[in-house]
Amino acid sequence: MVLICFNLLRSRLCLHSLHLTRSVLVRQPAELLKNTSSSSSCQISCRAATTSVHFRATAAAPVCFSGSVRSACFLIHVGPHSTAVTRCGRRIHTSAAARALPAPLVWALLKPLQKLVAIVVGRSIRKWWAALPDNRRQLMREWAWQLRWRLAAGTGVAMVIIALLLLTHLDESPVTGRTRLLVFSRDNYMELAALTSEAYMEEFAELLVPVTDPRHKTVELIVHRLAKCNKDIPEVSDMTWTIHVVQRPDINAFVLPNGKVFVFTGMLDAVADIHQLTVILGHEMAHAILAHSAEQASLSHVVDLLSLIVLTAIWAVCPRDSLAVLGQWLQKQLSELMFSRPYSRRLEAEADQVGLQLAAKACADVRAAPVFWQQMELADNLNGKATLPEWLSTHPSHKNRFTQLDRLIPQALDLRESCLCPALPAADPRVVFTKSVRVLLEQHKGRPEGANASQLPHSLA
Ligand SMILES: [Zn+2]
């Protein structure tokens, strides 16, 4: 209990952060640049700006926090060795900022140690209980029974304290306005993201596509367009988006919380057109804008801390170490299935929704979004790739993503129209794809087995 309170308070006092990964996708780059230029200027006013807390700061300039509930103004004077903060006539002095590891990283390093302590404590309780004489055990049981109401009250108070601590860490998600738990701050995750991006840059140093390469220029064009057309969202306009295209066949792309965009060439080969790529990059940018990494790490942090109580109990109650190890494994799997994976799928669905909105405001043909997931599902089926049931996966199934995006298309088209985007072609990509698949499957009927995937058009492989 003390450990949990300490960790929550420590994270509350720290700054915040974020991290992010992503993966996915399908096929052909060909006409990448062709259609984007058709939708020229962005009408940022097409959507109401997100209501969130704003933060503006420059050296020796006023720093204002403003929100819907309250507002306060600070004046910060930054010197070489100290910082002075003035608020409403009062002056606060702070010492020079100390260099420290990002809180999420510190937590990740301490995590194994916390588990070890829980195991040792639980095991020690079991050994102590086993070594007690029978009459002492009976006395202990009677003592516990007499104090049962006090113990229950203590447990209740502990639960209330934990609940209050969690309530003080609630935050409102940008764009969607969803209430969420955020133990780690965005700043903490920015520090971690800086370390992560340095590591990626080192790993991909020899694989980066030159900035003059058309593939790099294409990704850059799309990302900058998405950023420009969504600059009414503070989390978009405040971010510096940097593009890196990596020469690797993996069908993958991700955006770090600090705006570093990494796209593998395998992804560029996989998308069908620039509209699909726009939606995919919108999805990845949405993860960064919404600070999903910080949110997911926050949930994981709290679940892990509460799990320490369960872990201690497992090692205290199980009569043998082997059973305790089995119990620990089961507890970890249950925690994954009940908390981590469902939450991850929820965040993916939210990134799909927000990414579609970003793409709509950038005048992409959002109807291409569900087609992409149809392609993914078809490619998996034709290649005989085994897929995990959704409840075991960190991502929604292709079918569910297609269904959700398809349901959101009318709303996205309205948003696109409100942005004064050019009219879309009459041919709906979803209809075109369905017809193409029908023709394709008819052509493949009667062909010998094994001649399927390799003979598919590139766009479907
Ligand atoms: Zn994602």
TrEMBL record:
Keywords: Hydrolase, Metal-binding, Metalloprotease, Protease, Zinc. Residues 216-407 form the Peptidase M48 domain. One of its GO terms (cellular component) is mitochondrial inner membrane. GO terms for biological process: mitochondrial protein processing; protein quality control for misfolded or incompletely synthesized proteins. Its cofactor is Zn(2+). The keyword Ubl conjugation does not apply. GO terms for molecular function: metal ion binding; metalloendopeptidase activity. The keyword Hydrolase applies. Homooligomer. PANTHER family: METALLOENDOPEPTIDASE OMA1, METALLOENDOPEPTIDASE OMA1, MITOCHONDRIAL. Belongs to the peptidase M48 family. This is Metalloendopeptidase OMA1, mitochondrial.
